Amino acid sequence: MVRLPWVVGVSGASGTPYARAVLAGLLDAGEPVDLVVSRAARLTLLDEVGRTIRDAHWEEDVAAWLGRDVSGVRYWSAGDLAAGPSSGSYPVRGMVVVPASTAAVAGIALGLSKDLLQRAADVNLKERRPVVVVPRETPLSRGHLVHLLALHDAGAVVLPASPGFYAGTSTVQELVDFVAGKVLDSLGVGHTLFTRWRGELGAARAQGEHAGIGETGPEQAV
Description:
Elements: E1 6-10, H1 16-28, E2 33-37, H2 39-49, H3 58-66, E3 73-77, E4 94-100, H4 102-110, H5 116-126, E5 131-135, H6 142-153, E6 157-158, H7 172-187, H8 203-211
Parallel strand pairs: 1-2, 1-4, 2-3, 4-5, 5-6
Helix pairs in contact: 1-7, 4-5, 4-6
């Protein structure tokens, strides 16, 4: 059977917990992943979670970051423009860029292919495969909006990192998981990362209280 992974590109925007949650969700669903981490994202990882990813030790570093087995992950260096995901003939299901910096958004929208992340996203757009872009920037300038509109017009799903609060969320991780769940919904990948709206006001909150959700220390509360 041909391996058919999702490409996950992590760019340098703040929001690496979103990338971690998406990766965990894909792996929990049994989906193989091809991972590309930009140079700027390595610095963001170091700043946000005290970890980084080294090309020569990626398996150890990614496992430590995700806190899990990474046998379903294949890693490609962001500087390797001869890597598999740089070609449309390389079989993948689609791509997620999470978080997506405004620089990555611009590079993809303009087809610059400055690194493997941008090139892989461009390839998946031209091959008409699913592409989800998760921008994490605020406020947005006109230039940012123009580039995001260009991605939308090219067929990408623009999914801002905007968590919903109706799902009974009471911790930061639940808000992160909400965004990751919306990403997986866009890819058609099943998950249980958040409580879905059922047409009943307060239902998710009541369910969380019944299950003891929210009984955490102040350091975890939103």
